[in-house]
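My current task is to audit a protein record that another person submitted. What it holds is a sequence and that sequence's fold in token form. Thanks in advance; the entry in question is below.
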Amino acid sequence: REICAQAGVRDARIEDAFRETPREDFAGPPPWHVASFGSYAETRDVADLYRDCLVAIDPARGVNIGEPALHARCMKELALREGETVLHVGAGVGYYTAMLARLVGASGNVIGYEIDAAIAARAKTNLRGHRNVRIEARSGIASDLPGADAIYVNAGALEPYACWRNALRPGGRLLFPLEAPGAVGAMLLAQRGESATRWPARFLFPVAFIACEAPRDSTAERRLAARLADESWRKVRSLRFDAPDETCWLAGEGWFLSTAPP
């Protein structure tokens, strides 16, 4: 209840998903390492896992279970419905994957992608009781992704990759951190609309995730970091696939973000 209140989320389904998903089942055995003021603090008190904090999966690499309030806000924006199919890219140990599975219900499906084989193995173990979840130990940036009603990405990406856009069904939502490695990014929500060239899109709030494992493009990284350095990202209203015009905020190959509505 406190997490949802802190997130400004008034949704009983999301509150229930948090209530019914024990964080200690995913964090591994104690002692746990929780982030406090930019560094980890060791604890054996299970109550510490229920603060709005990062919990380490691999503290040496800074790989964590993310902040609950941030994910509560993201789940609200995804507006998942019973029976939908969700792709969870960067599933980690499956804590939020389990919540997505509860939100789509027994008639829905969640496919989690985790590129780290050891972490993916933990996720499979943690989620063995969820019949509507499948974990794949591979990249979620791939041309063979199945059709989905929502794609939730928990790793920083330089662009809305074509494989994600192509996997979206009509009305499908893509939510991901548009972010250059080592820089603060922002969560971008785009929805596949009726138009083939113009989709509604908007940024939600600043975020910082570990980067997707994808080919590096230092020029694109510098350009994105520069564009996100001010508040102009708040003006974005659409994701377009035609020729960039004077409303272009940021462009990539075959796409651009526009300040004009779709």
In short: The mean pLDDT is 96. The longest helix spans residues 68-78.
